[in-house]
Each structure stands twice: as C-alpha cells, then as structure tokens.
C-alpha cells in the first residue's frame, strides 16, 4: 500500500485505557516531553470546546523522531464493555500526523512510505477500535475481532473516495477544510489536511463531529 503506511503503532493513540495509563506529575511530565520533541504543530479542538483536555500518546520512528500523536477532549474513554457505559461517554481525540514524502529510513536500509490523509484516517480508525468492545463478545475472541476490524480500518483508509466515506467541511484555524468522514456503530472517524505541513485525523463517540472545529495548540503543556 503506497498511500497508507502502517506507521509505527507503538504510539497509536488510544492503545492504553484510562485505567492503564499512569498518572501523576512524573507521568504527565514524561507525556508532555514527547509532544515537545515534535518538529510540527499539534492540533486540538478550538476554543469553542470548553471541556477537559488531556494528552494521549505520541508515535515515533525508529530513530526517535516524533511522527504523530493525539490529544483528548471530553471524557477519558474506557474500553466499551457494555452499551450503557459507552452511551455515557462523550469524547473526541484529535490526531496530528506530520506530512512527509517518501523518504529513506533513519538507518538508510529502506524506504518509508509517505504520510498522507490516509495515514491520519488509518490512525483515527484504529484509535477508535482500541476503545471498542461489543458487549456480547467473549473476552477470548476480542483479539481476533480486533485484528479483523483493524484490517478493515486499514483498507477503508486507503480508499477515501468511496463509501462509507462522505465529506464535510470543518474549520481549521478558522479556515474551512474538507474532511473525509465515516460513521460506525462504535463512533465516528474523520481525516483531512491542515496547514503547517500536517494532516489531522479524529475519532469520537457521544460528541457530534459536525459541530467541531480544530486549531493549532498554542501551549501543549495546558493539556498535561
């Protein structure tokens, strides 16, 4: 696949549940340090959103270069273990992906795919899945289900021009931008290109995507 690289997913946003994520001042410092190493601006919801904001995770290349990361807004989500708890959650995660051309790997032994809007769509789709668990499913089957659904999200991200994707216009730094958008029974996913050489992906549940706006984060430490 040439347009959607399976970016190093050690830092895929949403791979740790709220219960698994270490808290406290030291953990928060480690979290924000990763964001501060990025050579690109981070994006989050704009000032119209007045709820809680928090850091999620960053993803890095083998040489330690920060490639992408996510910021959370609203309720910190937990894995969906039953329909009642999921219905009460209202959150949106915003993913920033550095736009990069096809390039040599850090060790010079290979070629890394370009990062595109499809990369942001893939990260958003897999991020939503990390917090999804059909209530009727046996725990022992979840890994197989997650593998299958993640592969589906990867395939969908490579064909943004076809169903189930539609488009909607949302403001980025006050300027209307066209995003690719799809819904599922577990939540919604969207992806588009921003300014400053980055792509934006987002996923959420309980918050309508149609009323969102995005803006460059002036001080990422306010999320810590």
TrEMBL record:
Domain of life: Bacteria
Region Disordered, annotated ranges: 1-27, 66-85
Sequence ranges of Basic and acidic residues compositional bias: 73-85
Protein name: Uncharacterized protein
Taxonomic source organism: Streptomyces globisporus
Organism classification: Bacteria, Bacillati, Actinomycetota, Actinomycetes, Kitasatosporales
